[in-house]
Amino acid sequence: MADERDVDLWVSRRLRELRAERNLTLAALAKQTGISAPHLSRLEKGERQPSIGGLLQIARVYGVSLSELVEEDREEDFHMLRAADTVNRDTGNGVFTVLSGPRTAISVIRVELPAGKCTQPAQHDGEEWLHILAGSVELRIDDKDVCLSEGDSVHFDSSRLHKLSAVGECAATALIASNAATMPMHHPVPAVPRGR
User: Fold this and answer.
1) In whole angstroms, what is the distance from residue 60 CA to residue 69 CA?
2) Between helices 52-62 and 4-21, what is the axis angle to 10°?
3) Which residue has the higher pLDDT, 167 or 74?
4) pLDDT tens-digit readout, 38-80
């Protein structure tokens, strides 16, 4: 398993690089993502760990996949992730692991929530599919609660405000597939050619 601090440094460096390539200010990126400029600055300095929803929004603005934000480039024609090579990111409320590769049209994430914990509320363009691997969760979509147990799945419009909570006395594990990071914006921010 890769060292989490090394991954945090990689992600913060990658966020800085992508913004520099697009010649964007923090204020301009904040306007496009809905994430405050001070928070974006802390993410780029490695002082804060980004939420899943935040990473999806940033990836969408840049027109890259989620895995391009959290993994180093690979030159294979396919993406394979061995169990020993997974990188778990602890958000404080739960642990998430990006399982998809840079060339996919979807982002796949495994989320592990301790009993009683919940994800940060998220809202982003696209769709999500959620499948419960273990435990029980409550999915709040806007003001509606959906209870899900092991083996249950739900597919929903992720532009609606949503949050996932582990219920009961056991931890919960879920798979989330989302096309939010790869959905085109009306005007995605392209990289500025070098030499300009």
Assistant:
1) 11
2) 30
3) 167
4) 999 998 988 887 777 788 788 888 878 777 777 655 555 666 7
Q: 111: which 2 tokens?
A: 């989320």
Q: Which residues pair with 137 in a beta bridge?
A: 148, 166
Q: Write out the two tokens for 175.
A: 């798979």
Q: Which of 54, 102, 65 is nearest to 179 (CA)?
A: 65
At residue 88, what is the residue type? N
Render pLDDT for 14-31 as a digit per residue (tens, 0 to 9): 899 888 888 889 999 998
> Dihedrals φ, ψ of 186, to 5°?
-60, -40
Joined tokens for residue 149: 């147990």
Per-residue model confidence as pLDDT tens digits over 93-142: 788 887 877 655 778 889 999 999 988 888 877 889 999 999 999 999 99
> Taking the CA atoms of the chain, what radius of gyration do you get in angstroms?
17
Dihedral sign for Cα 179, 181, 187, 193, please.
Answer: negative
How far is 112 from 35, CA to CA, in rounded Å? 24
Tell me the mean pLDDT in the region 136-162.
94
- The residues pairing with 71 across neighbouring beta strands, listed in sequence order, are none
β-strand partners of 136: 149, 167
